[in-house]
Amino acid sequence: xxxxxxxxxxxxxxxxxxxxxxxxxxxxxxxxxxxxxxxxxxxxxxxxxxxxxxxxxxxxxxxxxxxxxxxxxxxxxxxxxxxxxxxxxxxxxxxxxxxxxxxxxxxxxxxxxxxxxxxxxxxxxxxxxxxxxxxxxxxxxxxxxxxxxxxxxxxxxxxxxxxxxxxxxxxxxxxxxxxxxxxxxxxxxxxxxxxxxxxxxxxxxxxxxxxxxxxxxxxxxxxxxxxxxxxxxxxxxxxxxxxxxxxxxxxxxxxxxxxxxxxxxxxxxxxxxxxxxxxxxxxxxxxxxxxxxxxxxxxxxxxxxxxxxxxxxxxxxxxxxxxxxxxxxxxxxxxxxxxxxxxxxxxxxxxxxxxxxxxxxx
Length: 362
What we know:
The protein is mainly alpha-helical. The protein has helices at 2-17, 25-50, 58-76, 85-89, 105-128, 134-154, 156-159, 179-204, 207-217, 219-224, 229-255, 265-278, 283-303, 308-322, 326-361; strands spanning 165-166, 170-171, 174-175, 257-258. Helices cover 75% and strands 2% of the residues.
Protein backbone atom coordinates (compact mmCIF):
# COMPACT_ATOMS: atom_id res chain seq x y z
CA UNK A 1 0.00 0.00 0.00
CA UNK A 2 2.87 2.37 0.86
CA UNK A 3 4.60 1.58 -2.43
CA UNK A 4 1.39 2.31 -4.33
CA UNK A 5 1.02 5.71 -2.67
CA UNK A 6 4.61 6.65 -3.53
CA UNK A 7 4.15 5.49 -7.12
CA UNK A 8 0.94 7.50 -7.37
CA UNK A 9 2.77 10.54 -6.01
CA UNK A 10 5.61 10.10 -8.52
CA UNK A 11 3.27 9.80 -11.53
CA UNK A 12 2.52 13.56 -11.90
CA UNK A 13 6.25 14.32 -11.88
CA UNK A 14 6.82 11.73 -14.60
CA UNK A 15 4.04 13.31 -16.68
CA UNK A 16 5.58 16.77 -16.21
CA UNK A 17 9.05 15.48 -17.06
CA UNK A 18 7.67 14.18 -20.37
CA UNK A 19 6.15 17.59 -21.20
CA UNK A 20 8.69 18.27 -24.02
CA UNK A 21 6.89 15.53 -25.94
CA UNK A 22 3.51 17.26 -25.92
CA UNK A 23 4.11 20.97 -25.17
CA UNK A 24 5.61 23.75 -27.25
CA UNK A 25 8.61 25.84 -26.13
CA UNK A 26 6.51 28.66 -24.61
CA UNK A 27 4.36 26.46 -22.39
CA UNK A 28 7.33 24.25 -21.58
CA UNK A 29 9.12 27.32 -20.26
CA UNK A 30 6.09 28.28 -18.17
CA UNK A 31 5.82 24.81 -16.61
CA UNK A 32 9.52 24.80 -15.79
CA UNK A 33 9.38 28.24 -14.15
CA UNK A 34 6.24 27.50 -12.18
CA UNK A 35 7.47 24.09 -11.04
CA UNK A 36 10.63 25.72 -9.71
CA UNK A 37 8.40 28.07 -7.71
CA UNK A 38 6.57 24.98 -6.43
CA UNK A 39 9.78 23.93 -4.67
CA UNK A 40 9.65 27.15 -2.68
CA UNK A 41 5.95 26.59 -1.97
CA UNK A 42 6.65 23.18 -0.45
CA UNK A 43 9.09 24.86 1.92
CA UNK A 44 6.32 27.21 3.03
CA UNK A 45 4.14 24.15 3.73
CA UNK A 46 6.81 22.87 6.13
CA UNK A 47 7.04 26.18 7.98
CA UNK A 48 3.43 27.37 7.85
CA UNK A 49 1.30 24.26 7.38
CA UNK A 50 3.28 21.87 9.57
CA UNK A 51 5.13 24.32 11.83
CA UNK A 52 2.36 26.88 12.30
CA UNK A 53 4.65 29.86 11.56
CA UNK A 54 3.65 32.26 8.77
CA UNK A 55 6.76 33.30 6.76
CA UNK A 56 6.40 36.51 4.78
CA UNK A 57 10.03 36.82 3.73
CA UNK A 58 10.72 33.78 1.56
CA UNK A 59 11.59 36.15 -1.25
CA UNK A 60 14.87 36.83 0.57
CA UNK A 61 16.03 33.22 0.35
CA UNK A 62 14.68 32.95 -3.20
CA UNK A 63 16.72 36.01 -4.12
CA UNK A 64 19.89 34.75 -2.46
CA UNK A 65 19.77 31.55 -4.51
CA UNK A 66 18.85 33.42 -7.68
CA UNK A 67 21.59 36.02 -7.32
CA UNK A 68 24.20 33.34 -6.48
CA UNK A 69 23.42 31.58 -9.75
CA UNK A 70 23.12 34.82 -11.76
CA UNK A 71 26.48 36.12 -10.54
CA UNK A 72 28.20 32.98 -11.79
CA UNK A 73 26.43 33.11 -15.15
CA UNK A 74 27.30 36.78 -15.49
CA UNK A 75 30.99 36.20 -14.78
CA UNK A 76 31.53 33.17 -17.02
CA UNK A 77 30.02 35.04 -19.97
CA UNK A 78 32.71 37.75 -19.76
CA UNK A 79 36.15 37.82 -21.38
CA UNK A 80 39.04 37.32 -18.97
CA UNK A 81 39.55 40.34 -16.71
CA UNK A 82 36.50 42.27 -17.92
CA UNK A 83 33.84 43.57 -15.53
CA UNK A 84 30.06 43.14 -15.92
CA UNK A 85 28.47 45.90 -17.98
CA UNK A 86 26.52 47.49 -15.10
CA UNK A 87 29.73 47.80 -13.05
CA UNK A 88 31.44 49.61 -15.92
CA UNK A 89 28.49 51.99 -16.26
CA UNK A 90 28.72 52.82 -12.54
CA UNK A 91 32.44 53.42 -12.54
CA UNK A 92 33.46 50.27 -10.66
CA UNK A 93 37.11 49.61 -11.56
CA UNK A 94 37.72 46.28 -9.84
CA UNK A 95 35.60 43.19 -9.28
CA UNK A 96 34.32 43.25 -5.68
CA UNK A 97 35.91 40.67 -3.41
CA UNK A 98 32.60 38.94 -2.65
CA UNK A 99 31.99 38.40 -6.38
CA UNK A 100 35.22 36.49 -6.98
CA UNK A 101 34.20 33.08 -5.51
CA UNK A 102 31.34 32.94 -8.00
CA UNK A 103 33.75 32.43 -10.88
CA UNK A 104 33.73 28.77 -9.78
CA UNK A 105 30.75 26.65 -10.85
CA UNK A 106 31.12 24.36 -7.82
CA UNK A 107 31.19 27.25 -5.35
CA UNK A 108 28.18 28.85 -7.02
CA UNK A 109 26.13 25.64 -6.95
CA UNK A 110 26.96 25.17 -3.28
CA UNK A 111 26.15 28.82 -2.52
CA UNK A 112 22.69 28.41 -4.06
CA UNK A 113 21.62 26.26 -1.10
CA UNK A 114 24.22 27.00 1.60
CA UNK A 115 23.84 30.80 1.74
CA UNK A 116 20.00 30.77 2.00
CA UNK A 117 20.22 27.92 4.51
CA UNK A 118 22.72 29.79 6.69
CA UNK A 119 20.75 33.05 6.59
CA UNK A 120 17.53 31.16 7.40
CA UNK A 121 19.29 29.33 10.24
CA UNK A 122 20.62 32.53 11.82
CA UNK A 123 17.25 34.26 11.52
CA UNK A 124 15.39 31.24 12.91
CA UNK A 125 17.81 30.91 15.82
CA UNK A 126 17.36 34.59 16.72
CA UNK A 127 13.56 34.54 16.67
CA UNK A 128 12.67 31.05 17.89
CA UNK A 129 14.99 30.98 20.88
CA UNK A 130 13.17 34.09 22.14
CA UNK A 131 9.81 32.29 21.77
CA UNK A 132 8.36 34.90 19.41
CA UNK A 133 4.84 34.31 18.20
CA UNK A 134 3.90 33.77 14.57
CA UNK A 135 2.60 37.33 14.22
CA UNK A 136 5.92 38.89 15.19
CA UNK A 137 7.85 36.45 12.98
CA UNK A 138 5.61 37.34 10.03
CA UNK A 139 6.35 41.04 10.58
CA UNK A 140 10.10 40.46 11.00
CA UNK A 141 10.38 38.35 7.85
CA UNK A 142 8.34 40.89 5.90
CA UNK A 143 10.62 43.69 7.08
CA UNK A 144 13.63 41.59 6.08
CA UNK A 145 12.23 41.19 2.55
CA UNK A 146 11.76 44.95 2.28
CA UNK A 147 15.27 45.63 3.57
CA UNK A 148 16.81 43.07 1.19
CA UNK A 149 15.08 44.51 -1.88
CA UNK A 150 16.04 48.05 -0.83
CA UNK A 151 19.68 47.00 -0.36
CA UNK A 152 19.82 45.44 -3.82
CA UNK A 153 18.38 48.57 -5.43
CA UNK A 154 20.68 50.95 -3.56
CA UNK A 155 23.90 49.08 -4.45
CA UNK A 156 23.52 49.51 -8.18
CA UNK A 157 27.24 49.32 -8.89
CA UNK A 158 27.60 45.80 -7.50
CA UNK A 159 24.12 44.27 -7.74
CA UNK A 160 22.70 45.78 -10.93
CA UNK A 161 20.27 47.91 -8.95
CA UNK A 162 16.60 47.90 -9.89
CA UNK A 163 17.31 46.13 -13.20
CA UNK A 164 18.99 43.19 -11.48
CA UNK A 165 21.19 40.71 -13.33
CA UNK A 166 20.41 39.51 -16.84
CA UNK A 167 21.96 38.70 -20.26
CA UNK A 168 23.07 35.16 -19.45
CA UNK A 169 24.30 33.23 -22.47
CA UNK A 170 25.79 29.94 -21.28
CA UNK A 171 25.28 27.36 -18.54
CA UNK A 172 28.42 25.32 -17.78
CA UNK A 173 29.67 26.02 -21.28
CA UNK A 174 26.39 25.10 -23.02
CA UNK A 175 24.27 27.81 -24.73
CA UNK A 176 21.21 28.55 -22.61
CA UNK A 177 19.12 29.33 -25.67
CA UNK A 178 19.73 25.92 -27.23
CA UNK A 179 16.61 23.74 -27.49
CA UNK A 180 18.29 20.69 -25.97
CA UNK A 181 19.58 22.77 -23.05
CA UNK A 182 16.06 24.03 -22.34
CA UNK A 183 14.70 20.49 -22.38
CA UNK A 184 17.36 19.21 -19.99
CA UNK A 185 16.81 22.23 -17.75
CA UNK A 186 13.11 21.41 -17.66
CA UNK A 187 13.79 17.78 -16.74
CA UNK A 188 16.28 18.86 -14.06
CA UNK A 189 13.69 21.22 -12.58
CA UNK A 190 11.04 18.50 -12.41
CA UNK A 191 13.59 16.12 -10.84
CA UNK A 192 14.52 18.74 -8.23
CA UNK A 193 10.83 19.31 -7.42
CA UNK A 194 10.29 15.56 -7.07
CA UNK A 195 13.28 15.20 -4.74
CA UNK A 196 12.09 18.15 -2.64
CA UNK A 197 8.59 16.66 -2.45
CA UNK A 198 9.68 13.20 -1.37
CA UNK A 199 12.21 14.64 1.10
CA UNK A 200 9.53 16.82 2.71
CA UNK A 201 7.10 13.90 2.74
CA UNK A 202 9.66 11.60 4.35
CA UNK A 203 10.52 14.28 6.91
CA UNK A 204 6.88 14.48 7.96
CA UNK A 205 6.91 10.76 8.79
CA UNK A 206 9.96 11.02 11.09
CA UNK A 207 9.87 11.79 14.79
CA UNK A 208 11.22 15.28 14.07
CA UNK A 209 8.43 15.89 11.58
CA UNK A 210 5.77 14.69 14.00
CA UNK A 211 7.21 16.93 16.71
CA UNK A 212 7.03 19.91 14.36
CA UNK A 213 3.31 19.26 13.94
CA UNK A 214 2.93 18.71 17.68
CA UNK A 215 4.59 22.07 18.34
CA UNK A 216 2.11 23.69 15.97
CA UNK A 217 -0.85 22.15 17.78
CA UNK A 218 0.39 22.65 21.34
CA UNK A 219 3.80 24.20 21.92
CA UNK A 220 3.44 24.41 25.70
CA UNK A 221 2.38 20.78 25.88
CA UNK A 222 5.45 19.71 23.89
CA UNK A 223 7.66 21.74 26.19
CA UNK A 224 5.97 20.13 29.21
CA UNK A 225 6.81 16.69 27.79
CA UNK A 226 10.50 17.58 27.82
CA UNK A 227 11.11 18.70 24.23
CA UNK A 228 12.45 22.11 23.23
CA UNK A 229 10.33 23.41 20.31
CA UNK A 230 13.04 25.76 18.99
CA UNK A 231 15.31 23.17 17.27
CA UNK A 232 12.40 21.67 15.35
CA UNK A 233 11.16 25.08 14.19
CA UNK A 234 14.69 26.02 13.17
CA UNK A 235 14.99 22.75 11.25
CA UNK A 236 11.97 23.34 9.02
CA UNK A 237 12.82 27.02 8.61
CA UNK A 238 16.30 26.13 7.33
CA UNK A 239 14.89 23.49 4.97
CA UNK A 240 12.39 26.03 3.64
CA UNK A 241 15.26 28.47 3.09
CA UNK A 242 17.22 25.84 1.15
CA UNK A 243 14.15 25.02 -0.94
CA UNK A 244 13.66 28.72 -1.71
CA UNK A 245 17.32 29.17 -2.70
CA UNK A 246 17.14 26.20 -5.06
CA UNK A 247 13.89 27.55 -6.51
CA UNK A 248 15.50 30.95 -7.04
CA UNK A 249 18.45 29.47 -8.94
CA UNK A 250 16.25 27.32 -11.19
CA UNK A 251 13.81 30.15 -11.84
CA UNK A 252 16.70 32.44 -12.79
CA UNK A 253 17.93 29.88 -15.31
CA UNK A 254 14.46 29.55 -16.84
CA UNK A 255 13.66 33.27 -16.93
CA UNK A 256 17.15 34.61 -17.61
CA UNK A 257 16.69 37.34 -15.03
CA UNK A 258 16.76 38.03 -11.30
CA UNK A 259 15.89 41.46 -9.88
CA UNK A 260 14.78 43.15 -6.63
CA UNK A 261 11.21 43.18 -7.95
CA UNK A 262 11.16 39.40 -7.51
CA UNK A 263 12.38 39.25 -3.90
CA UNK A 264 10.56 42.02 -2.03
CA UNK A 265 7.41 42.22 0.09
CA UNK A 266 4.82 41.77 -2.66
CA UNK A 267 6.44 38.64 -4.18
CA UNK A 268 6.85 37.17 -0.69
CA UNK A 269 3.13 37.66 -0.01
CA UNK A 270 2.29 36.15 -3.39
CA UNK A 271 4.24 33.04 -2.40
CA UNK A 272 2.01 32.62 0.64
CA UNK A 273 -1.08 33.07 -1.56
CA UNK A 274 0.04 30.16 -3.78
CA UNK A 275 0.20 27.89 -0.76
CA UNK A 276 -3.06 29.17 0.73
CA UNK A 277 -4.90 28.45 -2.51
CA UNK A 278 -3.49 24.94 -2.82
CA UNK A 279 -3.66 24.08 0.89
CA UNK A 280 -1.11 25.16 3.45
CA UNK A 281 -0.81 21.70 5.01
CA UNK A 282 -0.60 19.79 1.71
CA UNK A 283 2.56 19.32 -0.35
CA UNK A 284 0.66 18.33 -3.53
CA UNK A 285 -1.78 21.16 -2.86
CA UNK A 286 1.07 23.69 -2.69
CA UNK A 287 2.41 22.48 -6.03
CA UNK A 288 -1.00 22.61 -7.70
CA UNK A 289 -1.81 25.99 -6.15
CA UNK A 290 1.49 27.42 -7.38
CA UNK A 291 0.89 26.20 -10.92
CA UNK A 292 -2.72 27.38 -11.05
CA UNK A 293 -2.13 30.83 -9.54
CA UNK A 294 0.88 31.54 -11.74
CA UNK A 295 -0.88 30.34 -14.88
CA UNK A 296 -3.77 32.65 -13.98
CA UNK A 297 -1.29 35.47 -13.34
CA UNK A 298 0.34 34.95 -16.71
CA UNK A 299 -3.03 35.01 -18.47
CA UNK A 300 -4.60 37.89 -16.56
CA UNK A 301 -1.54 40.14 -16.42
CA UNK A 302 -1.05 39.70 -20.17
CA UNK A 303 -4.58 40.93 -20.87
CA UNK A 304 -4.99 43.41 -17.97
CA UNK A 305 -1.58 44.28 -16.48
CA UNK A 306 -2.99 46.44 -13.68
CA UNK A 307 -5.68 43.98 -12.58
CA UNK A 308 -3.58 41.13 -11.24
CA UNK A 309 -2.84 42.52 -7.77
CA UNK A 310 -6.55 43.12 -7.17
CA UNK A 311 -7.40 39.62 -8.38
CA UNK A 312 -4.73 38.12 -6.14
CA UNK A 313 -6.04 40.00 -3.11
CA UNK A 314 -9.60 38.91 -3.84
CA UNK A 315 -8.54 35.27 -4.29
CA UNK A 316 -6.67 35.30 -0.98
CA UNK A 317 -9.67 36.77 0.88
CA UNK A 318 -12.06 34.24 -0.65
CA UNK A 319 -9.75 31.33 0.17
CA UNK A 320 -9.32 32.41 3.79
CA UNK A 321 -13.07 32.90 4.28
CA UNK A 322 -14.55 30.09 2.18
CA UNK A 323 -11.90 27.36 2.08
CA UNK A 324 -9.25 27.80 4.81
CA UNK A 325 -7.66 24.47 3.83
CA UNK A 326 -7.45 25.42 0.15
CA UNK A 327 -8.03 23.14 -2.80
CA UNK A 328 -6.59 20.20 -0.87
CA UNK A 329 -9.26 20.66 1.78
CA UNK A 330 -12.00 20.66 -0.85
CA UNK A 331 -10.65 17.45 -2.36
CA UNK A 332 -10.46 15.80 1.07
CA UNK A 333 -14.03 16.85 1.91
CA UNK A 334 -15.40 15.55 -1.39
CA UNK A 335 -13.46 12.28 -1.02
CA UNK A 336 -14.76 11.82 2.53
CA UNK A 337 -18.36 12.37 1.42
CA UNK A 338 -17.97 9.98 -1.50
CA UNK A 339 -16.45 7.45 0.90
CA UNK A 340 -19.43 7.75 3.23
CA UNK A 341 -21.81 7.40 0.30
CA UNK A 342 -20.06 4.22 -0.85
CA UNK A 343 -20.11 2.78 2.67
CA UNK A 344 -23.82 3.53 2.97
CA UNK A 345 -24.50 1.94 -0.42
CA UNK A 346 -22.57 -1.20 0.51
CA UNK A 347 -24.38 -1.43 3.82
CA UNK A 348 -27.72 -1.07 2.04
CA UNK A 349 -26.84 -3.80 -0.47
CA UNK A 350 -25.77 -6.10 2.34
CA UNK A 351 -29.03 -5.46 4.19
CA UNK A 352 -31.30 -6.14 1.21
CA UNK A 353 -30.97 -9.98 1.04
CA UNK A 354 -31.55 -10.22 4.76
CA UNK A 355 -34.75 -8.25 4.46
CA UNK A 356 -35.92 -10.36 1.53
CA UNK A 357 -35.07 -13.58 3.33
CA UNK A 358 -36.99 -12.52 6.44
CA UNK A 359 -39.97 -11.57 4.33
CA UNK A 360 -39.94 -14.84 2.42
CA UNK A 361 -39.72 -16.98 5.53
CA UNK A 362 -42.41 -14.93 7.15
